[in-house]
Amino acid sequence: MITFNLYAIPPMISFALIAGMGAFVYLRDPRSRLYRTFALSCLTLAWWLFGFINMYLSWDPARALAWSRLALYGVVFIPATMYHFILTLLNLKHPRRLTFLYIAGLATLPLGQTPLVYKAIRTGFWGFYPVAGPFYFLCPLTFVLAFVGTVLLVYRAWHKEHDIQRRRQLTYVLFAQACATPGIVDYLAKYGVPVYPFGYLDALGWIGWLMYAIVRHHLMDIRVIITRTGVLMVTYLIVLGGPFLLGWWGQPWLQVHLGSQWWLGPVGLSSILATMGPFTYAYLRRQSEQLLLHRLEEKEAEATYDALTGLLVRRALMSRAAAMLQRARVHHTPCSVLMLDLDHFKHANDTYGHLVGDAVLREVAARLTASLRTHDLAGRFGGEEFVFVLEGTARQQAVQIAERLCQLVARDPVQVNGHLLSQTISIGIATHPENGATFEALLAQADQALYAAKRAGRNRVRIAASTASTPESSHAAH
After folding, report:
1. What is the CATH architecture assignment of 6-224?
2. Residues 233-245: pLDDT tens digits?
3. The domain at 314-476 falls in which architecture?
4. Residue 116 half-sphere exposure toward CB, CA atoms < 13 A
5. 309-329: buried (b, 16+ CB within 10 Å) or exposed (e) per residue?
6. Which of 35, 70, 272, 345 has the most beta carbons within 10 angstroms of its beta carbon?
């Protein structure tokens, strides 16, 4: 017999979200090793939660103990499957620790139905709770090894990551693992330590952070499309499922309080939820449409602007520059292309690390673009290469602008994490109509001029020759 226990509601929510998310990810691509390990970790968590939900709802100690021992089949493998998922996500291999965690789970498994793991059941925490046996120590030991280990692994990966999108994903994975780690209190409570076992809340926090990373930042390359049909299904799953669960699990409790009219509880809840359903659907639909619009804007921005410097990406620059050169040909106006490269940037990157190198790129890009006109184009063309397209700018004016940019970068060292780094740039210039009529032609000429500036000693400007192949010189920018 079961009795309705309010304490079981939060684990029910955690169970539904974890089981649903595990199934959703697995069905996206059952062949994916990453998706399978995530689904497996969700399965072990869901198994544990399902057993403990029914333990809290049990009426007699024997039934509660049976459910707690059934839940143990999930508990013993939670550390191994979680560690396995994180290793797969980070593309790492720690075979010894992973093997130990699985062996420890398998060793505990046959003892799960004996007093060696759960020796008894006691009353506590608004229901029944198991008491640890002599071999139960394997469970908290593997939990600490796995979860502390995953936090350290994710932090190290986050610290070394340079891609902004991937770094954001790892941030929320780190939050998820850190949120789950305090679940050790569940193990301590079984030893009689006077702590509240809020492990189900840690599980809810874990899946909550990962769901946010999946929906918002495409964790595991999963892109969730929220449609009106999906919103409608979720809304009425709640409307229909809530009363059903109340009638299924809460009937004994309802009979105590409502007697033979216990059915009024589920019917009344159904009426309330059905009334709220259309309003809930309208609200969720608006939110989903705003989210979709925001995603489209983000996707357009990602396809247009470089995440590190905020400059145009190569494809967007090529498209806009081609249009600008077309206008220049039609109106017979000049146009100049500047190709810039940071001098000795690889040496600074290798010496101080990629994070410092990224900060230098951001600072140099900010200085350069601050001195350009709003209608000029600025793009990041490669690792440390930038390209500027100056509309209505003739050769001599382009040289003056380029020399000013060289001086602007070289004048003040870049301050990054306590380091003062001197940085210079070299610039090659090609102009329309002297060096060509298309952006591709001007870009090739500017590239040759840039290499001439590099060969001449760097921190200087060179201009592509208008009639000969040898680039013309300008004053060195010292």
Report:
1. Up-down Bundle (1.20)
2. 666 566 666 676 6
3. 2-Layer Sandwich (3.30)
4. 10
5. bebbbeebbbebbeebbeebe
6. 35
